Amino acid sequence: MLEPLVPLQPTGSLTPLYCVHSASGSAYSYLPLLPLLDAERPLYGLEAPGFDDDSEEPLTDVADLSALYLRAIAQDRPGEPIGLLGWSLGGVIAYDMASRLLAAGTPAVALIAVDTGVPAPGEPPGRRSMLRRFVSDLTGAPPLESQLELDRALADQPEEVSIEHTFGALIDAGLISDHLDIETLAHRFAVFRANVCALHRYSPTGSYPGPMITIRAAESSPEEMDWSGLAADWVEHTVPGDHYSIWQGEGLRALAEIIERSLDECMPAR
After folding, report:
1. What pTM value is reported for the model?
2. Tens digits of per-residue pLDDT, 99-134?
């Protein structure tokens, strides 16, 4: 299995920050943070199995993903205090990782979840619904807009048609850029689907005993992101934008400021 760590900025004297992928599986959604964080802050991404290598089988369980990433971090920085950051699904995986670290007696961990809904176990979405979410995630379009466009593009497509044929229709309709070939899109969809299934199967046990910082997009639902029942010491911040636009402009600058401040407050001086 390939190393899940992606070194975005591997050097520096401050507490390292490990950023867990969203449902897409990619670690590169965190690159916009790089010029805005302290230059002495080591920054790593955690990439989902199978994202860059189709010989790897995607994992469909948060506990398995969590264990894999903790092993990689332990090899990289054994016994050191660390920060964990996760956007969307990544916040849920980071929550599980932090819970395991504290249970194992790790010296210190900072947990920051960005626009992460509280897990609600249940049946994963069907194929068409999963496609809507994938297209929204791929394009950064609002979910309703993606749903309407996708439904128009696939109006004549039977449910059982191959995923490759489906992506061909979406490219022809201009809903998805052709910068990714159909085979790559099908492969990325398999990783996305595995990650969404992992989220729907996850049920936290107990309450996280350490400090948890959440950062919610102003346009996201406060009720869906209320972690008070799962974290004993929970602090929420709000930044301008929606689930995707917070990674740009004013929202991104506010994100970076809160992340740096939270790491400084949570972590011991080195």
Report:
1. 0.92
2. 999 988 886 789 999 999 999 889 988 887 888 888
